[in-house]
Amino acid sequence: RHAEAMRRRRKRRGWLLAALLLLLAVLYAEQSGWVKQRMYPIAYRDDIRASALSHGVEPHLVAAIIRIESNYKTGKVSSKGALGIMQIMPDTAAWIVEQARYEGVTLDKIKHRADVGIELGTWYLASLLRQFDGNMAAAVAAYNAGPGNVSAWLKEGVWDGTIASSDDIPFGETRRYVQRVIYYYNKYKSIYPDL
């Protein structure tokens, strides 16, 4: 009986030690830049950097939107018909192509080519940032819900346009979208300061 109790205590100590080691490994991983980059990867960095620089948008914000929209996968079409890596609606894409005077841009290129999707999505994001006077939260909300909806919320006082009050965004999908984009934006800024 005594031997059995000793075995149980040793076994418990072994499990406690294993749990402690696992906890220490997780804490170390949280501090390790390499592990963070594996947990929060960014694909197409050169394309993101080039488009962000060209349009005066923070590359971390572009990367965060891509993460939420497609998780860096090209060829995607949403149930609502949004295309490509930055999930641009065909009507919005046509408007962007006309406004920015892009030539040779087709819906197929937007859908399948990361560089084309990133360029159009970043141009659109820059236009939303201008429309909302640099208000990142409002521009991100508009990327998801459309600028008309966001303008109405702000005008009617439904939402004040701040990240802190994002719980007041009346569309649940847009509320979660803004919160997730800002989460990844902050993660990317801390992990990739030189993006």
Looking at this protein, list some descriptive labels.
mainly alpha, elongated
Q: Mind describing the biggest β-sheet? A: none
Strand content: under 5%
Number of DSSP E strands? 0
**What is the number of helical segments per DSSP (H or I, 4+ residues)?**
10
Order of helices and strands: HHHHHHHHHH
Helix content: 55-70%
Structural class by helix and strand composition: mainly alpha
Distance between the termini: 63 Å
Note down, in words, how this protein is organized.
This protein has helices at residues 2-31, 33-39, 45-55, 59-69, 90-100, 107-112, 114-131, 136-145, 147-156, 172-191. The protein is mainly alpha-helical and 195 residues long. Helix 3 (45-55) packs parallel to helix 7 (114-131), helix 7 crosses helix 8 and helix 8 (136-145) crosses helix 9. The protein is elongated and about 85 Å long. The chain starts with a helix and ends with a helix. The mean pLDDT is 93.
Short summary:
Helices cover 69% and strands 0% of the residues. It is built from ten helices and no strands.
Q: Which helices and strands, and how do they pair?
A:
Elements: H1 2-31, H2 33-39, H3 45-55, H4 59-69, H5 90-100, H6 107-112, H7 114-131, H8 136-145, H9 147-156, H10 172-191
Helix pairs in contact: 3-7, 4-10, 7-8, 8-9, 8-10
